[in-house]
Write a structure and sequence with these properties.
Order of helices and strands: EEEEEHEEHEEEHEHHEEEHHHEEHEHEHH
Strand content: 25-35%
Structural class: alpha+beta
Helix content: 25-40%
Low-confidence stretches: 383-397
CATH topology of the domain at 85-161: Dna Ligase, domain 1
Radius of gyration: 23 Å
Largest sheet: 5 strands, mixed
Number of strands: 18
Mean pLDDT: 87
Strand order of the largest sheet: 3-2-1-6-11
Oligomer: single chain
Number of helices: 12
Distance between the termini: 48 Å
């Protein structure tokens, strides 16, 4: 019997925190536990209060632990934020071994040369994603290990951001009594779960619509080529409904989830053509046409898609994405969004569904789980968690137990 590996992913979003525990063996991944908690201490994708952000992390992980019967210690965690930047760079090194076989040490060295980029004060490199290797002028190489050569080059996509951004994410996870195995940019994690091989190769853009941000990642030739994040997300749709229909935020969110769509023509085709709208204060609720709701949501959706289109033009890949746009995240669940995107972006568009994942429990839409699923898949497909994730050091267990006790006591008193 093969040894099983437990992998944990935590999607630290603005409106919700999602944890997934999965078991990987013989190349397969099965989701055993899912936990979701309302986020706090996160604004526009960035952790602004690690202490407050720790509580929903703990709650989501504990829910996933109860469902799976497993104990989490090390986790992969997503990060976002409008201050993150992606840049492409090139590195080169000479192969000086007498036999000219390329080794892992050579790859580490060439990636280090690619990471020599000029950064603003207080910024750091958060992650590096190789796009391709070049050996003695031959490009398009994914893995040059054991190849023969005298000159090794790499093209890489480098994620940069303020030092405090990643440290606050790590601090929040640590205060929840957990170790951080890796920090991954949100759209890159989502892409891991939903892109097919052809979409990676022939060009596609993953568009992740979160609570207060929308992030995108462009893929071509099997690697990420461009990333961007801008401050417009699902909460803006909710605010538009609350303002336009004069209804409380909580009711606006429910109306958006249950009956929202972004094309009025689609509203006429749907079964329920009216919307019950609770009023502010003690005034009676009203019944409005669903077409009116869609007329409120459509301009915001168009604004978002125009920002995506402008970013694609800036990237230089606008006419190289033959596989089109793939949407994910809670904001992507608005009915009619792919059709509107096809009209504005002039690409085929679809809602992303997780690929080659089984055992997802519960009735939550898969778009809400995509980033967390991508995190565990990254652990399964080459970025495995350390074995300490399933063999807990006494010091870490004591720290986590103490964190849980403090949480229980705060609830009691």
């Amino acid at each position: 019997m093969s040894k099983q590996t437990h992998i944990v992913g935590v999607d630290l979003g603005t409106t919700s925190t999602t944890a997934i525990i999965a078991e990987a063996h013989e190349g397969e991944l099965e989701v055993l536990g899912v936990g979701v908690a309302a986020s706090s201490g996160v604004r526009k994708g960035a952790v602004v209060n690690p202490e407050a952000a720790a509580d929903p992390i703990r709650e989501a992980v504990e829910e996933a632990e109860r469902m799976s019967g497993l104990v989490a210690e090390s986790v992969y965690v997503s990060m976002s934020g409008t201050l993150l930047r992606g840049v492409n760079n090139h590195g080169v090194t000479a192969i000086t071994h007498s036999d000219h076989h390329i080794t892992h040490a050579d790859i580490r060295r060439v990636i280090e040369t690619a990471s020599l980029v000029t950064l603003p004060g207080g910024y750091e490199i958060i992650d590096i994603h190789p796009q391709e290797y070049i050996v003695d002028g031959q490009d398009g190489i994914n893995d040059p290990i054991e190849m023969l050569g005298t000159r090794l080059e790499v093209r890489a996509h480098i994620i940069t951001g303020p030092m405090t951004l990643r440290r606050n994410v790590i601090a929040a996870v640590n205060r929840a009594g957990l170790l951080v195995a890796g920090v991954v940019l949100e759209p890159i994690a989502a892409a891991e779960a939903i892109l097919t091989h052809d979409e990676r190769e022939y060009g596609s853009v993953v568009i992740n619509i979160g609570g207060e941000t929308t992030s995108l990642a462009i893929y071509q030739r099997g690697a990420v080529q461009h990333t961007a994040i801008f401050p417009l997300g699902g909460s803006h749709f909710t605010s538009d409904i609350a303002f336009g229909l004069r209804t409380p935020i909580a009711d606006a969110e429910r109306i958006k989830r249950e009956q929202g769509c972004v094309t009025p023509s689609l509203a006429m085709e749907l079964d329920r053509t009216t919307v019950n709208v609770p009023a502010m204060g003690h005034r009676p609720s009203r019944t409005l046409s669903r077409e009116i709701l869609c007329q409120i949501l459509q301009p915001r959706a168009e604004e978002m898609l125009h920002q995506v289109r402008d970013e694609l033009r800036r990237s230089g890949f606008e006419r190289q994405l033959s596989s089109g746009a793939i949407f994910t995240g809670g904001g992507a669940l608005l009915k009619g969004l792919p059709a509107l995107a096809e009209h504005i972006l002039d690409y085929p568009a679809r809602l992303g569904e997780p690929q080659q994942v089984r055992g997802i429990a519960g009735e939550r839409p898969s778009a809400l789980l995509t980033t967390a699923l991508g995190l565990v898949l990254m652990g399964c497909r080459g970025r495995r968690l350390p074995q300490a994730a399933t063999h807990h050091p006494p010091g870490r267990l004591l720290a986590r137990t103490a964190a849980r006790v403090r949480h229980w006591l705060s609830d009691l008193f």
